[in-house]
Every structure is written in C-alpha cells, then in structure tokens.
Amino acid sequence: MTIGTSRNGKKQTVDLLIDTGSFEMWVNPTCSKSNVPEFCEVFGHYDPALSSTCQKLNGQFTIKYGSGSVAGDYYKDDIYISGELAESHYVWCGEEWF
Description:
Blueprint: E1 2-3, E2 26-27, H1 37-43, E3 55-65, E4 68-81, E5 84-97
Parallel strand pairs: 2-5
Antiparallel strand pairs: 1-4, 3-4, 4-5
C-alpha cells in the first residue's frame, strides 16, 4: 500500500502485517528509532512530513504487546490499497519501541 500524497514525487510504500482483530494501523516513521531497524527497512516506512495531505491530530497512543510496546502520534492521511483511494484514513506513527 502507499500512504499520503507525495511532496517529492516518491510514493511512500509500506507493507503491512494486517491484524483483522484490531482497528489500529500503525506504521514506522523512521527506522532509526526502531528496536529492529533492518526489519523496519524491509517493510518500508511513512514520513508524515513528505505528504501534502497529512493532518496531525491531537493526542498520542501507546499499545502494549506480549513482547514490547509502541508509542507515537495520531495522523490522518490518504491511503491507497491496490491503487484504490481511502481518503483521510487514521494512521498511527510509532515513534518509540520498547
């Protein structure tokens, strides 16, 4: 899938591991902050600053898993799945992994 409307001509392509039992869609904004940067690079990442359709929302999130947690900021942006547009979808950008 791709996220956002490019400011620099490059699409932001992200491979997702979809959890059908969850409504959250969180992505990696910067792989250098990931606890496994090489894994992050393989799946791609999303930089909200590179999208002209991105809107930062108020608030932050924290999700706890059995083997760690992720925390970050809420955004809304357009997403494209197989070329089909879903406008103003919630995108959670994970800024910290612990």
